[in-house]
Amino acid sequence: LMSPISQTRKKITSIKSLSAGLQMSSRGLEYLATLFGQELHHLTENSIETIASKQWDQHKSTTIRSLLHQERVSELLKYAIQCSVKCWLRHGHWIIGNHRFRADRKKNKKEHKDYLKSYDHSTVSFQTNRCTQFLGKIVNCLTLLYCADECIELQDQNCCDIIWTTFSNTLSLNDEMKVVDVKSCEDYYKRIKIRFILGCFDTDCMSLLRKKLGKAFDVSTDLDLISGDPS
Fold it and tell me: What is the DSSP letter of 138?
């Protein structure tokens, strides 16, 4: 789950090497997201809102069973959220703007120039989008699993709290993005919040949770306009 960070932790000498690292990460995340989706598909059959009454069979969920042998579902969910947020902080500028380079133009003049002119920009953007997309699917699956395991509804306050608290703590300990301009940083964080919610909780069965998170993240209006959810 941390591969989009670990694969690009070393100093990147070119946009192509960054693209290669993200591509390798996205393939691994896609495989894991597909496994999770297949094993937990029955939890969202017919887009039913109620999860608490549904049962999931650990004996048929080989991948999940092996993970639960080591960690509680809540801890897995927290870790997946942390990885998703860190990926957005480290690579999100390739999708939603170049805030990372705007902060210090003089020091990063060459890097900023490469960012603007590199023909590989679209490739990096594409691979970044894939990484955030699959991390979102994994968070989605683990949220379903957490609620089923705790016998609570998706819109339960405990579910909302664990997501909000983990997201906020990861954001406050941000070590993936340089921050200079507070105002532009707040706007950037806001866009990350919206992308995170839409990317992780876009399924029909999570509409009520999505609304609760919108309020907790203070992005309800923007979220309603983008997602088309009625007020």
Answer: H
